[in-house]
Amino acid sequence: MRTEKEKMLAGDLYIAHDPELRKDFKRAKKLVRLYNHTTEDQKEERQRLAEKLLKKTGKGIHLEPPFYIDYGGNTEVGDNFYTNYECIILDIANVKIGNNVLFGPRVGLYTAGHPIDAIIRNEGYEYGKPIAIGDNVWIGGNVVVNPGVTIGSNVVIGSGSIITKDIPDNVIAVGNPCHVLRQINSDDKKYWELEKEKYFKE
User: Fold this and answer.
1) Dihedral angle of Cα 35, 68, 129, 156, to the nearest 10 degrees
2) What pLDDT, on the 0 to 100 scale, is given for residue 198?
3) What local confidence, expressed as pLDDT, does residue 199 receive?
4) Taking the domains of the chain in order of start, what are their residue ranges?
5) Which of 37, 62, 114, 179 is catalytic?
6) What is the value of pTM for the model shown?
């Protein structure tokens, strides 16, 4: 017989009011509370708490308080991950974030789902689907990433987008529902190289 935690991580229906899950949830809430009460001068303490909270942390990560997460133990972040204020991660299922990923304020990653049927939903059943984000991704403020979504590498997501389907590599995507606006191309690289040159000429 599988535990409720095993069912949860497999993406199957599970009951959240399970003693093991409540223990994990309470542990995460304590670490989140401690993290959110640190100051800007406590960088080492923030790193220590983040490493204790999350399943895996890369180098040079920064979680701008306040930061919120359900379990932490189901979330991996790569090197140079930065999230601005009020990030929310509901990591009922696994969340994997690559290297050099930047979140604007109030980004939400929601792996959690509930049955459409009200009777089953009211009995307390839930489920989760994983979220994956590649390398070199910038996600604008107030973006919502829904369960089961994969975002490729070298992607820019416009602010306010609601992502319901996978986003491929090397694109700008925007809207509700989020859709590909265009490819990122060599003209973008040339433009920003010129802007950088202007910076050094000032």
Assistant:
1) -100
2) 83
3) 84
4) 4-201
5) 114
6) 0.95
